[in-house]
TrEMBL record:
Pfam families on file: RVT_3
Chain coiled-coil ranges: none
Gene3D superfamilies: Ribonuclease H-like superfamily/Ribonuclease H
Lineage, highest ranks first: Eukaryota, Viridiplantae, Streptophyta, Embryophyta, Tracheophyta
Molecular function terms, GO-annotated: nucleic acid binding; RNA-DNA hybrid ribonuclease activity
Annotated ranges, domain RNase H type-1: 145-266
Organism of derivation: Cannabis sativa
Record InterPro entries: RNase_H-like_dom_plant, RNase_H-like_EbsB-rel, RNaseH-like_sf, RNaseH_domain, RNaseH_sf
Record-given protein name: RNase H type-1 domain-containing protein
Length: 294
């Protein structure tokens, strides 16, 4: 806000987080009494000398940090700025846990991508990955497609799961609605975990699970353990997969996952429902018919 004032933009100088001090860059990202709680949570101090600039603070913080902590400094600043914009533009409440979670999940995902054998979105695929159109599973097997949807206005998110046989006929469709605000990657991971739990409860064998979240599939295939909420969900997925027989998970393009996407969007209207072919909501039938025809 202080920078905007220097450009003669008439705005309030007060920090949108604490409303008790002028918003300079250093105050917004480091010394604000609200934001300092996030830095304390990750073990990085915010004590600064008088007349210190944000660049001075960064230089001092980086000089005494290893590469892991330097990455954490960068992503916490990024998450704080995102939270700040959420307050200013969407009047969203500030939650320190959300700031720390967003930062650590993003950093872990980035490190996982760097260390993964998948060097780009097209490399490292295994046979069965990257399908652009939905295809039925082989004879005597079933396929489950899963997707997640966020409903920010209602502070909720949902999953859609579609179980079909080798003829492409719907066996079951399922919707699940959860309360809370999560990032897209975490929602997708939780959806995959929910689908694996469903497979286990149905005692399914010879099953293919498809999702259009590449980051989730990469994380499940990776041997890297991520210390974050996203990492804990991925760990659950790995443990569930280890208990299932002949269950495989693949990444597919959004165009091959359109029915699961439609079910996920419908979870806000039909929370926690299981459908058979005879009682599927009429608004979901067109996506089923179109995908089978493809």
């Amino acid at each position: 806000m202080t920078h905007l004032r220097t450009k003669r933009v008439e705005v309030s100088l007060l920090c949108p987080f604490c409303q008790s001090a002028n918003e300079t860059t250093l105050h917004c990202l480091v010394t604000c009494q609200v934001i300092s709680l996030a830095w304390n949570r990750v073990g990085i101090g915010t004590q600064v000398a008088e007349d210190t600039s944000f660049l001075d603070w960064c230089s001092a913080a980086f000089s005494g940090a290893d590469s892991e902590k330097r990455g954490l400094i960068a992503v916490v600043c990024w998450a704080i700025w995102g939270a700040r914009n959420g307050v200013v533009w969407n009047n969203k409440a500030v939650r320190i846990n959300d700031i720390v979670s967003a930062a650590t999940v993003y950093l872990n995902q980035w490190r996982n991508a760097q260390n993964s054998l998948i060097e780009s979105s097209e490399n490292g695929f295994i046979p069965g990955d990257g399908l652009e159109h939905w295809v039925p599973p082989i004879h005597n097997s079933v396929k489950i497609n899963v997707d997640a949807a966020l409903f920010e206005s209602n502070h909720s998110f949902g999953f859609g799961m579609v179980l079909r046989d080798s003829r492409g006929v719907l066996v079951h469709g399922r919707t699940v609605l959860k309360q809370g605000d999560v990032n897209p990657a975490l929602a997708e991971a939780m959806g995959v975990r929910e689908a694996l739990s469903w497979i286990k409860s149905l005692s399914l064998h010879q099953c293919v699970l498809e999702t259009d979240s590449l980051v989730v599939v990469q994380a499940i295939r990776s041997s890297i353990d991520m210390i974050s909420l996203f990492g804990l969900v991925i760990k659950d997925c790995k443990e569930l997969l280890a208990t299932l027989r002949n269950v495989s998970i693949y990444f597919v393009k959004r165009s091959a996952n359109s029915v699961a996407h439609a079910f996920a969007r419908a979870s806000s209207s039909y929370p926690d429902c299981v459908f058979s072919l005879g009682d599927v909501p009429t608004e979901l039938l067109p996506s089923l018919v179109a995908e089978v025809q493809v």
